[in-house]
Specification:
Elements: E1 7-17, E2 26-41, E3 46-52, H1 65-76, E4 83-90, H2 100-115, H3 124-135, H4 138-146, E5 149-155, E6 158-164, E7 171-176, H5 183-188, H6 196-214, H7 220-223, H8 230-233, H9 238-249, E8 254-256, E9 263-267, H10 270-283, E10 289-292, E11 301-304
Parallel strand pairs: 3-4
Antiparallel strand pairs: 1-2, 1-11, 2-4, 2-5, 5-6, 7-9, 7-10, 8-9
Helix pairs in contact: 1-2, 2-3, 2-4, 3-4
The structure holds L-homoserine.
Length: 306
């Protein structure tokens, strides 16, 4: 079947993974978006126009992550990929721990899903399976696909997720530095094993985190404690480590966002965010960009353009 001429509009949120104790498991979708228009062509080639973040930097051929993810999705469902023209308007910063690569992967998958509308039915498990395989871990792609707070895990049948709604008092604030850190480098800093007591510590905090996010935001400070990843990666992002210490010393539930170096503060009311932003502006030398972001509850959307 020829898909040439079909055109879809795709919108994918930023995400923050880990949320402190939930390493490779918890993720939160945030209202900052990459928006794309993807057109199927019969030219057997890929062209990409990027505006905003990544303009002049990311690949603009079939190795572009959105394009390669779309092509991989066609292959995963046994369909031949058409040529593609992608126009991307990106807002999610790259290499900062806000899920930009997961968003690109999900954008490609959502585009393929939209172009295949009527020919292939995608279940949520299939979407998450393709996305996790391409991204390498499920904790960013799950909230990027489905929105809200997600718990992601791997079963014998593949990756699975549970989407949860978040207490309306939970008010995310993100501090984004100019520096970047690759997830691969951050993952190399992880030890192969951890002390049993540290594992127990994180099981307790991660369980508490779900309760804090859903019904008890006043518990977010204790719930965001972690011993599995942040200390091992601290030396690779000293400004982040120092600023999180400052925020936590003042009672704000601050954590590394994903693999860093951005910071996520899960304030338990919108008013706290301004105070936290002022504290960081006056208390650190790093030029942080502060973003007060709502939780995104929809996840990726794809709509046909006629
Ligand atoms: N859980 C992953 C990590 C998230 O921390 O390595 C990367 O965005």
């Amino acid at each position: 079947m020829s898909f040439a001429g079909r055109r879809v509009s795709v919108k994918v949120p930023a995400t923050s993974a880990n949320l402190g104790p939930g390493f490779d498991t918890l993720g939160l979708a945030l209202a900052m978006y990459d928006e794309l228009t993807v057109t199927a062509t019969d030219e057997k080639s890929v062209t990409v126009d990027v505006h905003g973040v990544g303009e002049g930097e990311v690949a603009v051929d079939e190795t572009n992550l959105v394009a390669s993810s779309a092509i991989a999705t066609f292959a995963a469902v046994g369909q031949e990929a058409p040529g593609l023209h992608i126009e991307a308007r990106n807002a999610i910063p790259h290499g900062r721990g806000l899920g930009s690569s997961g968003a690109a992967v999900v954008a490609g998958i959502a585009a393929a899903q939209g172009l295949l509308e009527g020919s292939v039915t995608f279940t949520e498990d299939l979407l998450l399976g393709i996305a996790s395989e391409l991204e390498g871990h499920p904790d960013n792609v799950a909230p990027a696909l489905f929105g809200g707070l997600t718990i992601a895990w791997t079963s014998e049948e593949g990756p699975r997720h549970k989407k949860l709604m978040v207490h309306r008092g939970v008010s995310p604030l993100v501090f984004i530095p100019e520096s970047t850190l690759s997830t691969r480098r951050a993952r190399e800093l992880q030890p192969a094993s951890v002390p049993h007591a540290d594992a127990v510590f994180n099981v307790s905090r991660s369980s508490l985190m779900v309760a804090a996010m859903l019904q008890s935001p006043e518990l977010l400070f204790q719930a965001t404690e972690d011993k599995l990843h942040q200390s091992y990666r601290a030396a690779a992002m000293p400004d982040t480590t120092e600023t999180i210490a400052l925020l936590r010393a003042h009672g704000y539930p601050a954590v590394v966002s994903g693999a860093g170096p951005s910071i996520l503060v899960l304030c338990d009311g919108p008013g706290d965010r301004l105070d936290a932003a002022r504290l960081v502006e006056s208390g650190t030398a790093t030029p942080w960009r502060a973003e007060m972001l709502a939780v995104d509850f929809k996840g990726a959307t794809v709509v046909p353009i006629s």
